[in-house]
Design a protein that fits this description.
By secondary structure, the protein is an alpha+beta fold. Strands 3-6-10-9-8-13-16 form a seven-stranded mixed beta sheet, sandwiched between helices. Strand 4 and strand 5 form a beta hairpin. Helix 2 runs antiparallel to helix 3 and helix 24 runs antiparallel to helix 26. The longest helix has 22 residues. The protein is globular and about 115 Å long.
């Protein structure tokens, strides 16, 4: 091979002179490189192999520039095998980005690099831009240390674990079980006692962290002002005092004796925030074989039967593609969603402390991976102890700057699934937060009569006379068709009032931006923002200009901030349940509510009795015995494992109420239990609207939705809310009872709800809270724990054979279908789990046996052909039967018919 390539170093004359034959050979070299797309970037650029320090097979240049460099400088020494231009891949994961000839030792490591799992893991972590200089720098040396650790067995004769694999496995176990560093050190010492003396097992947590530090991703610590006025970042990074109020950046702690004072030498800031850059985390998704292919799923799948099962199926996504075709033409560009929420790290009884993580997640992934914990990236950790409220934009500045860079320029990224570099760009699609945080992110106040961010100034909310609270009663007839009879009803809503106006519609991004500009609102990072915005907010619903408007594409989105279905559903359920159960302090049917009821509505039957001074009972409130029956029923309920928590523990039989329910418990109760629980105790005219709102949320939160279904829901929800207005008093209808009228519209625009609600973040915050090992340094403790967990999860992709969704451990009752070896077993009898506790036996009653028999037959795929035969026979026998009658006949006669049919 070297004899064939001697022309590279013999045909060129000094000072840029070369023979015609040498020039032709250079053209052949370039043509050879272009025939290998895995080594070509952007279709026309290859690595330049000239002798310049900046090149040397490290830098991509267009082919004409490469030729000029070779003419002037010649080839890099000893480049006889064109491994960077497609001739040979010594190790495909590293050869495109890591120089081989750095020193004799590192040459040996690189030449002997094989295709082991841990080599792949280390090369993935190094990334496509890893390029050490002539002498390895600290980053390069760390990389080669991990390569060597991946080759050495943990002790002589052990073929299962290397030094690196043992270290990352120990780290993963620590993160899974949330063990302390002291436990890790003690366990490492104990393992040392078990292993031979010449073992390579890390001695403690520090040495483990030092070995695997290259697998982690960066974090930036940024100083900020104690009152959240500013962060010392960017152009302000060198300031020593706040540019708004002049407060010092660093603590001026003085200590000493009476005669001598000692000022602390170390500069300790009053407050620090942690920023985790999103770019390297997105690049790692393309660097790993476990996720690189999945990042293109959004463009490769197709809608079936018009059902939206992913945000990429929705009009908002397609509209964005149409507005920016240059962005959408590269399917590997990333679409992001942003979560924001606060939590109390010390529990309800501890110190008051408000911590606000900002989490980003990519939407490119398929439904089974999208929104999972492994792909939710902590980006900003807004420090406590105070709530940042409207000043959260101050802490979002680094993120917005990075998002602008990812949109305008992008970053060169290596896609391991296609063996090529590409310029990765990213766009933020929307934010996801609860209703109070909606105001913090959008700049529109979610309190007062203009709280609805869709209606805005078109709201018809009013203040109640007695209670002084805002009411959205009779705010929904404007969403009905113009000929609907409710519009002319002057009895059941606000008395003597007809509604002729229509909802004006949701404002576009251009209209909102023009309104902000006309009013002169400031961003909170501006020096005069507090004074200017305070004056303007008195005349409108805006309280600031959101920092998200700095993104060049933000105005083009059809939906920028999501209404959180999780919290809206919870609040609607709370109001209904607490009012129906007449829970003291929580019911909306209060004395003040009754006193003002007939000032707005014509309901004299509920007015105060002037003789007894008492208020009559209302039909939507249960009596004491009915409450007991419902709660006893709830207490005896049993759900499949993992479906819901034990609601029986939430029953307070003495005070006749429910307590301690989690968000998901409200979700289950609202959609599954509420209609059943109230069916026998409420009149139909009251039970039916409550059931309709329950079914509305059930249909809205389906995993797949069609445009027709959502349009029907959009038409039904105003009628449902009007029916509730006919039952409950005006005090019942706060902003949470109004917001459902807009949920179907948002789902029709942006796709299924479960990609845009808060459940994933609520679960994620629980994991973050468990990372707090040092309560004196909450943010720092979370930062260290997150970086370690991130590295551990990255390595688990390789332990689990590249499947990032495979659970770290089996659940207590989990059974995999692969473990069931009986191929003749019917599908319905192949259990997804196993029983918990000791088994019990009892005889079934006749009706129970019949119901169980019918259930097995109707839900067994192997029996379905026989059901079709039975239905066909009955339709021929009784041509006029409708579907309901056929179903009833099937339940009654199919079991006996099936027995005779099979036996014959």
């Amino acid at each position: 091979m070297e004899d064939d390539r001697e022309w590279m170093y013999e045909g060129r004359i000094a000072n840029g002179m070369f023979s015609n034959e040498w020039g032709d050979k250079v053209d052949e070299f370039v043509a050879f490189a272009l025939r290998h797309p895995e080594c070509v970037n952007g279709g026309t650029s290859i690595r330049c192999p000239c002798t310049l320090v900046k090149c040397q097979n490290k830098k991509f240049l267009n082919v004409e520039t490469v030729k000029v460099h070779l003419y002037r400088n010649g080839f890099v020494p000893d480049y006889y095998v064109w491994i960077y231009h497609g001739e040979k891949q010594v190790h495909q994961r590293c050869s495109s980005s890591v120089r081989v000839s750095v020193s004799e030792t590192d040459q040996m490591v690189s030449d002997n690099m094989n295709h082991t799992t841990y080599h792949r893991m280390v090369c993935d972590a190094a990334g496509p831009e890893f390029n050490p200089d002539e002498e390895p720098n600290a980053e390069a040396r760390n990389f080669y240390d991990m390569i060597r650790a991946g080759d050495k067995p943990v002790y002589e004769g052990n073929s299962k674990h290397t030094q690196l694999s043992a270290a990352v496995r120990m780290l993963e176990i620590k993160c899974i079980h949330r063990c302390s560093q002291a436990w890790f050190d003690d366990m490492s010492n104990f393992i040392q006692e078990l292993l031979p003396q010449d073992n390579l097992m890390p001695l403690d947590f520090y040495s483990t962290k030092k070995l695997v530090r290259g697998l982690g991703l960066p974090v930036q610590v940024i100083h900020c002002y104690v009152n959240n006025c500013m962060v010392y970042w960017g152009d302000d990074s060198d300031l020593n005092s706040c540019k708004k109020c002049g407060h010092a950046r660093y603590k001026q702690k003085v200590r000493g004796s009476r005669n001598r004072l000692y000022i602390r030498k170390l500069k300790v800031p009053y407050k620090k925030m942690h920023y985790f850059p999103i770019t390297p985390r997105l690049q790692r998704l393309y660097a790993s074989t476990a996720t690189a292919n999945e990042m293109r799923w959004h463009s490769e799948h197709h809608m079936e039967d018009g059902k939206m099962c992913h945000p990429s199926d929705a009009p908002a996504w397609k509209h964005f593609d149409g507005c920016f075709p240059d962005f959408s033409s590269e399917v590997r560009n990333v679409r992001l969603g942003l979560f924001v929420d606060g939590f109390q790290p010390f529990g309800q009884s501890g110190q008051q402390y408000s911590l606000w993580p900002v989490v980003v997640t990519p939407y490119n992934l398929p439904p089974d991976l999208c929104m999972k914990e492994e792909f939710m990236f902590l980006t900003v950790l807004v420090p406590g102890p105070t709530n940042p409220k409207g000043k959260i934009d101050v802490f979002l500045q680094p993120l917005i700057a990075e998002l602008k860079s990812l949109w305008g320029v992008g970053v060169q990224t290596y896609d391991i699934s296609k063996w090529q570099n590409f310029q990765m760009r990213a766009a933020l699609m929307w934010t996801i937060n609860d209703f109070p945080a909606y105001s913090m992110m959008s700049g529109w106040s979610t309190a007062g009569m203009f709280a609805c961010p869709h209606c805005m100034e078109d709201s018809d909310a009013f203040r109640l006379i007695k209670s002084g609270k805002q009411s959205w009663f009779d705010n929904h007839r404007k969403f009905l068709p113009m000929n609907h009879p409710y519009r002319r009803n002057t009895k059941d809503f606000i008395k003597n009032r007809k509604v002729t106006k229509q909802f004006s519609g949701v404002r576009s991004g251009d209209e909102i931006l023009q309104d902000l500009n006309n009013r002169g609102l400031r961003k909170v990072i501006d020096v005069d923002a507090e004074v200017v915005n305070a004056a303007i907010s008195k005349t409108c619903g805006w309280n600031k200009r959101s920092i998200f408007w700095d993104l060049p594409y933000w105005r083009e989105h059809l939906l920028r901030h999501n209404l959180d279905v999780m919290h809206i559903e919870k609040n609607v359920f709370d109001n209904i349940f607490n009012t129906v159960f007449n829970i003291p302090g929580k019911t909306k049917d209060t004395y003040k509510s009754r006193d003002e009821l007939n000032k707005y509505c014509r309901r004299p039957q509920f007015a105060q009795n002037l003789v007894t001074n008492k208020y009559p009972d209302v039909p939507f409130v249960l009596n004491k015995s009915q409450k007991k029956d419902v709660l006893e029923w709830v207490k005896k309920l049993r759900f499949p494992d993992g479906y819901a928590s034990n609601l029986g523990r939430c029953v307070d039989a003495n005070k006749l109420k429910m307590f301690g329910m989690k968000s998901h418990d409200f979700h289950v109760f609202m959609q599954r239990l509420l209609p059943i629980a109230l069916r026998e105790f409420l009149p139909n005219r009251i039970w039916e609207p409550i059931t309709e709102i329950s079914l509305f949320f059930k249909q809205l939160t389906s995993s797949s939705l069609t445009d027709e279904e959502l349009r029907n829901l959009d038409e039904q929800i105003p009628v449902i809310l009007c029916n509730l207005e006919k039952i409950f008093p005006p005090s019942f209808f706060d902003s949470m009872e109004h917001l459902p009228v807009h949920l179907a519209y948002e789902a029709r625009i942006a796709g299924p709800v479960h990609y845009r609600w808060m459940y994933p973040l609520e679960r994620y915050l629980r994991k973050i809270k468990h990372k707090i090992m040092n309560k004196a340094q909450v943010e720092g403790s979370i930062s260290i724990g997150y970086i370690m967990a991130e590295a551990a999860k990255f390595t688990s992709f390789y332990f689990k054979e590249g499947d990032p969704t495979l659970p770290l451990k089996e659940k207590r009752n989990e059974v995999y279908l692969d473990d069931i070896v009986d191929d003749d077993m019917f599908e319905i009898f192949k259990p997804p789990g196993k029983a918990i506790g000791a088994e019990g036996k009892r005889y079934l009653a006749d009706n129970e046996y019949t119901a169980a028999h019918l259930y097995v037959l109707m839900n067994c795929p192997e029996v379905q052909p026989f059901i079709n035969v039975f239905v066909t026979e009955k339709r021929k026998q009784f041509p006029n039967l409708n579907d309901e009658a056929v179903n009833a006949l099937t339940e009654q006669e199919f079991p006996s018919w099936f027995e005779k049919y099979v036996c014959s």
